[in-house]
Amino acid sequence: MSQDFEAVQRAAEQGDAKAQYKLGLMYDKGRGVTQNYAEAAKWFRKAAEQGDAAAQHNLAWMYEKGLGVAQNYAEAAKWYQKAAEQGHCDAQYNLGNLYANGQGVSQNYAEAMDWYTQAAEQGDAAAKTSIGVLYAEGQGVAQDYAEAMKWYAQAAEQEDADAQFNLGVMYEHGQSVAKDDVEAVKWYELAAEQGHVKALFNLGGMYDEGRGVAQDFVEAVKWYTQAAEQGDADAQTSLGVMYSEGLGATQNFAEAMNWYTQAAEQGNATAKNNIGVMYAEGQGVAQNYAEAMKWYTQAAEQGDATAQSNIGFMYAKGQSVAQNHAEAAKWYQKAAEQGYSDAQYNLGVLYANGQGVAQNNAEAVAWYTKAAEQGHTDALEALISMKK
């Protein structure tokens, strides 16, 4: 233990609130003493009970995160409130978060807005971003993208990564501003440079699709990888696709399977479907239709249209299951109703041939037309053939 620690400890034990707060910090950060969250919470509490706002905030934080004390959002809200009422900026922002999320208090967007506003008036960038989110989502206020943009812009000027990312989203989707992929890329890059995981993923997507930048699969892989390594399931899935198809990286089915598996473990339905495809096609693994069906089923139960269509195909072909056109029609129907063009076409084929459903040319034409309108060439040829 350092001499500074011993001096602070003596003052704290004599009831000096500032010393108690400082001692809590020393235990919290492991400065001059072994880190000990329970001791930190104990000393923060002593200072907090004497009205020290910083100690009240830190004690609330420990209750929110369950550090040194059992996690307790109600206690967190209580202590944030005490500090916030004394004008503590971080406490005002964090209390706003609890109201926005309904943690320890009843969810109340108006209360959240009030506390965010008080923090924002002190210049807190995160609070400004949160106000923008409330306007963008129409939570507690009328949805107003222009107002959201105003608050995001203010926070982005302070280099808040969430605000930079949100501005990118608004430019990408044309919310309150003209759609501008170049501007979206600019803001995604600024957020990505700070390690913002969704910005990293979205930037990868822009390079992947050539929107706002020249298409560059190598750049896409670079950005997807950074997001995937932070655990983003969408990025892990997209990176798996790049390795599976050899885009921006040498084709590597084992690497694709690795990334799909990580995403699937997080519940990503697209990744589950893609693992099914690898088993169905024997890509990097022994072909195994039963295993493919298992993964398709998991994804389909989450509403994934591609997986639903793939199950339909397996029933139509009798792969790992007895051939059953009625089951095929059922699964094609689920996917077709979600707008999946392959399923719309295949459902049209079943109606044209009367397989698993009553033969019905009008239904066949209807589904072929839906698929053709999405550019499905086989559906277009089927329509032409039916008109002859």
Walkthrough of the structure:
The chain has helices at 3-13, 17-29, 37-48, 53-65, 73-84, 89-101, 109-120, 125-137, 145-157, 161-173, 181-192, 197-209, 217-229, 233-245, 253-265, 269-281, 289-301, 305-317, 325-336, 341-353, 361-372, 377-387. The chain is mostly helical. α7 runs antiparallel to α8 (125-137), α9 runs antiparallel to α10 and α19 (325-336) packs antiparallel against α20 (341-353). The chain is 71% helix and 0% strand. The model has no long low-confidence stretch (mean pLDDT 97). 51% of the residues are buried. It is elongated. Among the domains are: 196-291, Serine Threonine Protein Phosphatase 5, Tetratricopeptide repeat (Alpha Horseshoe); 303-388, Tetratricopeptide repeat domain (Serine Threonine Protein Phosphatase 5, Tetratricopeptide repeat). The chain contains 22 helices and no strands.
What labels would you give this structure?
Serine Threonine Protein Phosphatase 5, Tetratricopeptide repeat; 388 residues
